[in-house]
Amino acid sequence: MRNTAKKLASAILALAMTAAMSVTAYAADYGLVPVFNSTASESTPATTEELTNAVTSATESSNGGAVAKVDVTTTVGLTVKPTVLKELAQKDGGVLEIVAPKATISIDASTITNARNVNLSMKVTNTKSRTVINMASKKDFGCEVKITLTGCKMSAEKLENAHWYLNGKDMGPVELDEDGNPVVTLTKGGKIEIK
Fold first, then answer.
1. Of 152, 148, 146, 150, whose CA–CA distance to 186 is shortest?
2. How far, in Å, CA of 104 to CA of 182, rounded?
3. Are strands 140-149 and 103-108 parallel, antiparallel or unpaired?
4. What is the phi/psi pair of residue 103, to 5°?
5. Are 94 and 122 in contact (CB under 8 A)?
6. Highest mean pLDDT range out of 2-11, 54-63, 87-96?
7. How confident is the model at residue 17 (pLDDT cuts 50, 70, 90)?
8. Is a pLDDT exceeding 60 seen at residue 162?
9. How far apart, in whole angstroms, are the C-alpha atoms of residue 43 and residue 72?
10. Coil/strand/helix, residue 39
11. Cα end-to-end distance, the chain, whole Å
């Protein structure tokens, strides 16, 4: 009975020591200075004010046909508000051009039929065999949105015979710009595949 009491006391003491050590180790992390990702601020899309200012300044400096160019580091959360489209629609032949890392998105004023929120949030995935654009919105845009894929990894030979698909529907051969980049023109969102 004495040995059992000793073993029990030893086990309790070992558990207490282990618990104390883990609490100390856990608390030690609180002494570290937290590290924040400095690129968080760089991944903010263009604001409505930036888009409106770009449209205003581009159209004021020309007599129509102006291109309002805005560079963004991401298309996540990218929305063009009705006020921006109304401003663009009032200008003759104006084009809003949003340049992102993998794509250039453009809206021509002449195609605007209904100024509404246009959610341009998208994720672009490129491989040598296909390119996929998953748009956050599947709604009608109220205008034409042209997407030029500047970061396409498909070869020129593959693109020559490629078709593009919107939500699984074959939309025909993919258009290529003067630099050989694939271009799709949409009036609504969804999943776009080029293959």
1. 146
2. 11
3. antiparallel
4. -155, 155
5. no
6. 87-96
7. low
8. yes
9. 8
10. coil
11. 79
Q: What is the pLDDT of residues 74-96, one digit of tens each?
A: 888 888 889 888 888 876 668 88
Residue 135, number of CB atoms within 10 A of its CB: 23
Nearest partner of 190 among 163, 176, 161, 169, judged by Cα: 169
CA distance 141 to 156: 30
Please give, one letter per residue, the 3-state secondary structure of 43-88: HCCCCHHHHHHHHHHHHHCCCCCCEEEEECCCCCCCEECHHHHHHH
User: Which residue is listed with tokens 């995935």?
Assistant: 125
Hunting for tokens 């921006």 — which residue is that? Answer: 84
178: which 2 tokens? 């003067």
Read off the pLDDT of residues 38-55 as tens digits, 9 standing for 90 and up.
333 344 566 667 776 766
**Residue whose token pair is 């074959």:** 170
pTM for the whole structure: 0.71
Count of H-run helices and E-run strands, the chain = 4, 13
Instruction: Give the closest residue to 42 by CA, choosing from 101, 105, 96.
Output: 101
